[in-house]
Structure formats: structure tokens, C-alpha cells
Design a protein that fits this description.
Mean pLDDT: 91
Order of helices and strands: HHHHHH
Radius of gyration: 19 Å
Helix content: over 70%
Number of strands: 0
Number of helices: 6
Low-confidence stretches: none
Shape: elongated
Strand content: under 5%
Distance between the termini: 51 Å
Structural class: mainly alpha
């Protein structure tokens, strides 16, 4: 129906789509807040028996954050959360997981969330630091 007789123009359709997505921003920001809080509150596994469930909790929180942030192009949050998912996914269930990684990601996500949009340099430094940590940890897993 776009650009056909009786349809709507591409410009109008895009404006309507943007308005529909924008109406969901507050809900998405609430989901992001909740998922960061879950990561901040996630306790390190007390032993190998609860490691899988704690890692699954962290992984689910990170993926839910990506799902909520993606449509609003909160790319720095998505990138940081994706890095955490990559590390969790690369870890074998038999290996011990360095829980400090979850803690650092949670704190970094909180900082990224609270920085103003114009703090591009600060955001880039946070993401660079996370990328360096991820690279080192993935090299240890390989």
C-alpha cells in the first residue's frame, strides 16, 4: 500500500513507524533499567553446581537488554551487553568463569546508561576497555 493508489507515502509510513516505536521508549528504558539491576545484583556462583544457573541469569539479562535497547539505537548498551554474552557463550560448562566480568559489565552498563548522549569520548573509552578485556578473556578460553 505504500506509494500505491489509496496507500500512504513512504515518508508518512516511516513517520508513523517512528512514532509507534517512540511510544514504546519508556517501557524499553524500564526493561533496560531492570536488566542492569539484575546484573548488578547477580551473586557470584558459590560453587560449580550453581554456576550454570548464575551464568544463564546473566546471559538472559544481557540479551533482554539488547532486545530493549536495539530498536532505539542505544548501540553502546547493545555492544557492551553483547560482549558479555560472547564471553558467557564461549565458556565451557566445565570451566570456572571469572565473575568479575559480570560485575565489570554491570557497572559499565550502568555508567553508559547514565552518561549524557553527548559524552561520546567517555562512551568510546568504556567500550574500548570492555573490548580489550573481552579479547584477553576470549584468548584464554581458546
Amino acid at each position: 500500500m505504500i506509494d500505491s493508489a489509496g496507500g500512504v507515502s513512504v515518508g508518512v509510513a516511516l513517520a508513523q513507524a517512528r512514532a509507534n516505536i517512540e511510544a514504546m521508549r519508556a517501557r524499553a528504558l524500564g526493561v533496560i533499567e531492570l536488566q542492569i539491576s539484575i546484573l548488578e545484583g547477580a551473586a557470584a556462583p558459590t560453587g560449580p553446581e550453581d554456576a550454570p544457573s548464575q551464568l544463564e541469569l546473566a546471559y538472559r539479562a544481557a540479551t533482554a537488554l539488547i532486545d530493549a535497547a536495539g530498536p532505539f539505537e542505544l548501540l553502546d548498551l547493545c555492544q557492551a551487553a553483547a560482549g558479555l554474552c560472547d564471553l558467557i557463550g564461549a565458556t565451557s560448562p566445565e570451566e570456572a568463569f571469572d565473575w568479575r566480568i559480570v560485575t565489570v559489565h554491570a557497572r559499565s552498563l550502568r555508567l553508559l546508561q547514565t552518561l549524557p548522549p553527548e559524552a561520546a569520548d567517555e562512551r568510546a573509552r568504556i567500550l574500548q576497555s570492555l573490548a580489550e578485556m573481552i579479547e584477553r578473556k576470549l584468548a584464554q578460553v581458546a
